[in-house]
Structure of Signal transducer and activator of transcription:
Amino acid sequence: MAVWIQAQQLQGDALHQMQSLYGQHFPIEVRHYLSQWIEGQLWDAIDLENPQEEFKAKRLLDSLIQELQNKAEHQVGEDGFLLKIKLGHYASHVGSRTYTYDRCPLELVRCIKHILYTEQRLVREATNSSSPVGGMMDSMSQKYQQINQAFEELRLLTQDTENDLRKLQHNQEYFIIQYQESLRIQAQLTSLATLPPADRQLREPALLSKRATVEAWLTREANTLQKYRLDLAEKHQKTLQLLRKQQTIILDDELIQWKRRQQLAGNGGPPEGGLDILQSWCEKLAETIWQNRQQIRRAEHLRQQLPIPGPIEELLNELNSTITDIISALVTSTFIIEKQPPQVLKTQTKFAATVRLLVGGKLNVHMNPPQVKATIISEQQAKALLKNENTRNDSSGEILNNNCVMEYHQTTGTLSAHFRNMSLKRIKRSDRRGAESVTEEKFTILFESQFSVGSNELVFQVKTLSLPVVVIVHGSQDNNATATVLWDNAFAEPGRVPFLVPDKVLWPQLCDAINMKYKAEVQSNRGLSEENLVFLAQKAFSSSSNNPDDYRSMTMTWSQFNRESLPGRNFTFWQWFDGVMELTKKHLKPHWNDGAILGFVNKQQAQDMLMSKPNGTFLLRFSDSEIGGITIAWVAENPNKRMVWNLMPYTTKDFSIRSLADRISDLNHLLFLYPDRPKDEVFSKYYTPPLSKAVDGYVNFPFLSSCSSIPCGCLLSVSCGRSDSMLDTDGDFDLDDTMDVARHVEELLRRPVESQWGGQQS
């Protein structure tokens, strides 16, 4: 599956070339879900120019259809329903007479050979290029190659010890036969005592000579057997040493990195990636460990069968203990959470999670399907659990539908339990420390089970903890809970004591975290620029410096982030930033992606930028004074002087009535988006189309923001039931002018419908 995994890392033109390989003739879904099978077939062994090879191609076509049907049959649950239908559809159509492949199976081989060849070429070119993707893929290839080489070395070592063990067994069996022969000779010598002296003297020398020869051979062979046993034990020690090293790389490096990516994905980082490669490695580990364990047990059985004094007994006990430790670490470490529960968890709300055992079916765990139980525990209980302190039956709440049986899927080889309908019925909170709020208290979901390995030869109690969760009871707590989760996901260190995080971090570290979150929430490739981050630093540290270097060594504490209010405000830094994200995500995403919103600009900066521009030039900036607000700043002539005006901020409530683009369209005095783009050029594609004809005698009455009679220095926008002045305290306005506009709008609303829309009936 290595080629397909690397192909998915392609970018730009290479990615488009790869995607163009697929279509109705060969769907990309078939390539994805049968990648291991496809890459495992000997396509090159078929000569496309030889018609006699068609029967081989037909066998491959039939196998492909069977694989698709098997994959479809093993899709379960809500998530697998559509995939089951789609894969079944492909299986039936690929094998139908309407497809070329049924009439000419060699075309299937030609198609797949072309796909694989092109993918390999694209991957090779990306690997050899100097692009970041090329370097990443090259590094990944080297790492995978090293791991695969180590597995090959382990395979050869295991095969070598297997051969030595068989040789030892053969030699020991022959030794036992010769030992029995020596006993028979001794019995014959003993029986000579009953014979007459002449007969005894005649037969005794030959028997004594034969006994001496056999005993000498037995002595030599016993030493040889002991040496064989010691050599075998030393080889097993070498194998176990390499096994432990390989297992450390896979579990402590690769799996931990996957878990870290999973944690960062909770902050909006890239997806953690699939587990197929990790599972294949873990399965190889399981097979190799089990083979060596069986060999060590057979060696111990041979020792018991023929005890020979020496250090071998102690060596075998040590080997058995080591191999048990290794398999224990493998089983307990590969019990993981594939799909994490939500980290902001609301009571009385349905949620899901999936746990998985990466050794799959290799140790026959699925022969006695394990049941997994989910429990919510506190931070203190998690600490006690990791210290192996007795926490049995301790929990911090009640989860409904918290038991699930692990299911083995033959086609994919996955052993997993899908909790689909869990719900947190109640939560028991602990005493809070100091200024800590309920949205700073962390819990975790504990998943535990019992696995029987190798037909109940070994039994392991397994446990795994979810990422920290913050429990809320009301939606208003969501933003503060998200802050706790963001800080934990971004700054948690591997192997920490649950759930310790630093109280302060460097400003650039926090910038990386909030930029990742912002891009994910807004679903945009346009992240926070250096200028945006300087603005945020000024807000966070109450600073006026515009130099990014001034903030690189500064630290921000958790209290500054989301416990202490910003100076002169009643909200924290995070609450303000989260409000900006929510507003942009819900109402401003296209404008942010177009670059139409500068956003992170303060009032003084806006004034400095606009004063040198023509009248009617405007920009959009996020409000400093209101959470989740955006304001329009524009430059215009006043009877006394030229000045910059700022509208009162628009919020989600306003945009649920009328969009930003339509509001800008309504405001006739806004002419150019900073620096000099005509506003219609930027926003017209988002304007609401004109009213269509009336249906059944009725027309929709639009929300209007009329500006035709507004004086140059004053703007008023009308929203339902709202008569706020649209200028903040820094803008001047005339009360009489404002009342004139209000009366104009009131008169407009009182007019008969027919006078406005050509006499349509009401």
Summary: The longest strand covers residues 414-427. The two ends are 67 Å apart (CA to CA). Residues 130-134, 703-762 have pLDDT under 50 and may be disordered.
